[in-house]
Design goal:
Elements lengths: L8 H9 L11 H5 L1 H6 L4 H10 L10 H6 L13 E2 L26 E2 L5 E5 L8 E5 H11 L6 H9 L5 E2 L4 H13 L10 H8 L20 E2 L13 H9 L50 E5 L25 E7 L3 H21 L5 E4 L6 E3 L3 E5 L12 E14 L3 E11 L10 H18 L1 H13 L13 E3 L18 E3 L3 E5 L2 E9 L2 E4 L28 E11 L5 H11 L7 E2 L2 E2 L8 E2 L7 E7 L11 E4 L4 E2 L7 H16 L2 E2 L8 E5 L6 H6 L3 E5 L6 E2 L7 H10 L8
Parallel strand pairs: 1-3, 6-8, 7-12, 11-18
Antiparallel strand pairs: 2-21, 3-4, 5-20, 7-8, 8-23, 9-11, 10-15, 12-13, 13-19, 14-17, 15-17, 16-17, 19-24, 21-22, 23-24, 25-27, 26-29, 27-28
Protein name: Protein kinase domain-containing protein
Keywords: ATP-binding, Nucleotide-binding
GO molecular function, one term: ATP binding
């Protein structure tokens, strides 16, 4: 079978004429017999239209349209089911439970397939028609090889060999999200929401920027203050009268003592930053990629002008007020982890620091070839060794959180959830880079200096001598380098080539999802230089060179993201238990994977998005006020709004139920399963935001784990499993 067969006319005719095709590669015999006659006949417009339809690539993630039509489904209702059949040898062995496994994603479930075409109905007993089970191509191929049953399903074997392997799909890069948002700010789109009065007034006179739906008060820029009792380490340091006063109104306290080298210092916010929280009608990007446990901020400064952390207060009466019209109250909260998680975080931080110590000592290098075209050259290549890169962050001492009643997402018996703006060090997501133009200029200058001083000829003679093959009749060059023209190379091999003269060979191009990688192979002498260049970062304007200064203007040393902040009602312990559960969840709960699982008791494949929101830390107040309750904060990914099962198609209802069933298969009970605890948003977190607008695929997540627990016996999940089937009207409760 040839690769790409599914895109041929034969495959498409088969898919359009068979209800349950044995293979997407088969062609009806009648088509083969009449092939020559069809070519001789002139095509009518109808034939041309049909031929045009056949050229459309097959969607491997949807059931063929003709099959859906014959089964009575519309494309909007049903796109996912098992529709292929794996042929069996009538004299073959029976399929029984065994240790043979197919490809698996991170959750370890047995039935995984990269596409819908990788799932099959198969006879357990070859000559018993009614004994059908569901399996996958990779599992069946392994089992049939073990049975030596190779001839009955040759096409299916070939298809299984081409199947993609399971892989984790990262959510959209928060570094790219940061730079995209910064570009919009620098374009002046959000000047009306700047905390700088002069910027807002200038924007108000312009008709080129958006404004908020309603008026808001203009206030002079000011730094927030910290509650007096929060600045003290113990409650005994304040008197009872001071605590009572603090609980009634914000205290007049000194300004925050922020060191100059902190990314949150005011001098590191170029105009028009900082923006007023919750004023911009165009929301921040949601943080959808997990932060490693050891990189969660140790301290959280919570900006809470409405005193929402008291929870039992009533901010609704002035919830529409502007942020600038309120006196900012800043609470300090500390990251709280279980002893086991804290130990794991400490070990991870230590390991990350050791790895960073080692990697930062390895200088990257850029190979500058003597020519771009193929062929011999008398000039050697130049290996430009770059300076040490800046260290990556291995811990985050502090972050800031902004919370407002305007961002209220929901309220329950035990908690209230707000949409919050989370400010983190930008260096956590955006790395410094080297200007290639600077490297070229410095190398040219260094080359000129070396040639004038005679050092160039000396190094060239040493390089040719080190090759050890002056006659050029040696074999493979042990020091030849594959050079990536788009990036830098690590100078692990410092020897020179062995061919004479030097050769630049044609590009070697390999395709790897999702980008094209091109490498040129160079064999010949190299001369090493150390150009005096520096790494550049727009958060540090002094590092930006003249080549990039016009296009890359200064940005803050912080990045803002949207998260969900969950607060607890007074005296309730559900939030603390939920935080512990998040820490105990297996990693695959938070991961997005390619492909599909058939999750029992479901019979159709469902996608493998993350099961739960990303966990961003559990923070408790540093001190307790004597007269006022202050809630701890659970920071998680904002994953949308609760679902309405009556408005979901069958595929979506199955996907929602699969979240619960996957939760069960990992050994967990939810104990509070309801429609309100499954949320939905448009667009997959693993795709670019523009793609989410063009292809608004729904993404679902299970939430609210304050009562969840692990179980040891499978019978414990049966009741909750029935609840899920009833809620989403699935077999045997389908309406």
């Amino acid at each position: 079978m040839k690769k790409g067969f599914l895109n041929t006319d034969k495959a498409k005719r088969k898919l359009d004429t068979e209800i349950v095709p044995n293979s997407p590669r088969d062609e009806p015999k009648s088509a083969k017999k009449s092939k020559g006659k069809e070519k001789a006949q002139p095509k009518s417009p109808t034939d041309a239209d049909a031929d045009h339809t056949y050229r459309t690539p097959i969607d491997l993630h949807s059931v063929p349209r003709q099959l859906l039509k014959k089964m009575g489904y519309s494309e909007s209702e049903k796109k996912r089911m098992v529709f292929r059949t794996w042929p069996r040898d009538p004299s073959g062995k029976s399929l029984v439970e065994n240790a043979i496994r197919g490809k698996r994603a991170g959750n370890g479930l047995d039935l995984w397939g990269a596409t819908l075409y990788d799932f099959y109905h198969v006879r357990r007993v070859p000559d018993l028609a009614g004994f059908i089970t569901i399996s996958t191509g990779s599992k069946l191929a392994a089992e049939m090889k073990d049975f030596s049953e190779l001839d009955a399903a040759k096409d299916e074997f070939a298809w299984a060999e081409q199947e993609e392997f399971p892989r984790e799909l990262p959510a959209w890069d928060p570094g790219e999200a940061t730079t995209c948002y910064e570009s919009r700010v620098q374009g002046g789109y959000f000047d009306a929401f700047s905390s700088r009065k002069e910027v807002r007034e200038k924007a108000a006179k312009s008709n080129t920027v958006w404004t908020t739906p309603g008026p808001y008060q203009l206030a002079e820029e000011h730094r927030p203050s910290e509650d007096e009792d929060n600045e003290m380490d113990t409650a005994s340091e304040s008197s009872e009268s001071e605590a009572e006063e603090d609980s009634e109104k914000p205290a007049e306290a000194p300004k925050l003592d922020v060191p100059v080298d902190s990314p949150f210092h005011s001098i590191h916010y170029p105009s028009p930053w900082p923006l007023i929280p919750f004023e911009n009608p165009f929301p921040l990007y949601s943080l959808q990629r997990s932060i490693p446990l050891h990189l969660l901020p140790k301290k959280l400064r919570v900006h809470d002008p409405w005193n929402l952390l008291s929870v039992d207060g009533d901010p609704e009466h002035d919830s529409a007020a502007s942020w600038t019209s309120k006196k900012d109250i800043v609470r300090t909260c500390i990251l709280s982890l279980s002893p086991e998680s804290q130990k794991a975080a400490n070990e991870a931080a230590k390991a990350a620091a050791e790895i960073e110590d080692a990697e930062v000592m390895i200088n990257e290098a850029v190979m500058i070839l003597p020519q771009e075209e193929e062929g011999p050259t008398e000039e050697p290549a130049v290996l430009a060794v770059l300076p040490q890169r800046p260290r990556k962050l291995t811990e985050i001492p502090e972050a800031h959180l902004y919370i407002s009643p305007q961002g209220k997402l929901g309220e329950g018996h035990h908690s209230v959830v707000y949409k919050a703006e989370w400010e983190l060090p930008r260096d956590l997501f955006c790395e410094s880079a080297i200007c290639k133009t600077c490297v070229d200029e410095k190398v040219r200058g260094e080359t000129k200096r070396m040639k004038e001083s005679g050092e160039w000829e000396q190094q060239l003679r040493e390089a040719q001598k080190a090759r050890g093959t002056p006659d050029g009749d040696s074999g493979e060059d042990p020091s030849a380098m594959d050079v990536d023209p788009s990036g830098s190379e690590s100078p692990k091999k410092k020897k020179v080539g062995t061919t004479n003269p030097a050769m630049v060979t044609p590009p070697v191009v390999t395709v790897r999802e999702p980008k094209l990688i091109q490498k040129l192979r160079y064999e010949g002498p190299t001369i090493t230089t150390h150009p005096d260049v520096k790494y550049q970062n727009t958060s540090y304007p002094e590092t930006i060179c003249e080549h990039r200064r016009f296009h890359e203007r200064p940005v803050p040393r912080t990045a803002m993201f949207e998260v969900a902040a969950k607060l607890s009602m007074p005296g309730d312990e559900h939030l603390a238990r939920e935080a512990r559960n998040y820490l105990d969840f297996p990693p695959h709960f938070f991961q997005h994977w390619n492909g599909y699982n058939v999750v029992p008791p479901l019979r159709d494949p469902t996608p493998l998005g993350a099961l739960v929101p990303q966990f961003n830390g559990y923070y408790v107040p540093r001190t307790r006020a004597k007269r006022e309750y202050r809630s701890p904060i659970l920071l998680i990914e904002d994953c949308g709004q609760p679902v309405d099962p009556d408005k979901l198609c069958e595929d979506d209802r199955q996907e929602c139920a699969a979240l619960l069933f996957r939760f069960h298969h990992a050994g967990w009970l939810h104990e509070s399963f309801a429609a309100r605890n499954i949320v939905v948003q448009e667009g997959l977190p693993t795709t670019y935001p523009l793609e989410r607008m063009v292809k608004p695929t729904l993404s679902f997540r299970l939430i609210d784990f304050g009562r969840s627990r692990q179980y040891s016996h499978s019978s414990a999940r049966m009741s909750e499993e029935r609840e899920g089937q009833k809620l989403f009207r699935l077999h045997p409760y389908a309406s």
